Amino acid sequence: MTAIQICALIGLIVSAAFLYWTGYRGGLIDGRIGGIDEGKAIQQSDNSEAIHNLEHSLLQVRADRLQLYGHYERALASSKLGEQERQTLLAIAEKLRIAAETFSAFRTGKELERDSLALRDQALSMAALLEPATQEDAA
Fold first, then answer.
1. Which of 95, 94, 116 has its CA nearest to residue 104?
2. Rounded-to-integer distance, Cα 100 and Cα 123, Å
3. How far is CA 82 from CA 27, 39, 96, in A?
4. Residue 26: how many CA atoms within 13 Å on its side-chain side?
5. SS3 category, 1
6. Contact assessment for residue 100 and residue 87, using Cβ atoms and an 8 Å cutoff
7. Per-residue b/e over 99-120, b at no fewer than 16 CB within 10 Å?
């Protein structure tokens, strides 16, 4: 072997090693980038699922808040009723009692008597609900 052939062989070996090394490094870099992209995709899907769950929870909380607000408005409206309304309900109950006694005298008034007594009971129960509210105001 001549010196030129030896130099060519060394150059060929060095260039093959350099080519192998650049391919190896390029593959590592491509794999790393692919892994990073895949990791980001997985993280994004996890985040989107978490966002979906949070949006669902938010909708449930909003629905619960609207329901509670409705209860609050009804309670506020009923708390505005006072002694005058209670006395009105008691007067209605008394008039319904008189009407029930009047209807009981007639043979065909039994159904009217039952209806009047049922309405009287409802008016008395509403008046009873208003009574503790007035006691709380006095305290």
1. 116
2. 14
3. 83, 66, 21
4. 6
5. coil
6. no
7. bbeebeeeeebeeebeebbebb
Instruction: Report pLDDT digits (tens) over 45-86.
Output: 888 888 889 999 999 999 999 999 988 888 777 677 777 777
CA distances to 21, 25, 28, 36, 110 from 31, in Å: 15, 10, 5, 8, 91
Count of alpha carbons within 13 angstroms of residue 62, beta-carbon side: 6
**Crossing angle, helix 3-79 and helix 110-138, to 10 degrees?**
110
Tally: H helices and E strands in the chain? 3, 0
What pTM does this model have?
0.38
Residues near 134 by Cβ (< 8 Å), separated by ≥ 6?
A: 82, 83, 86
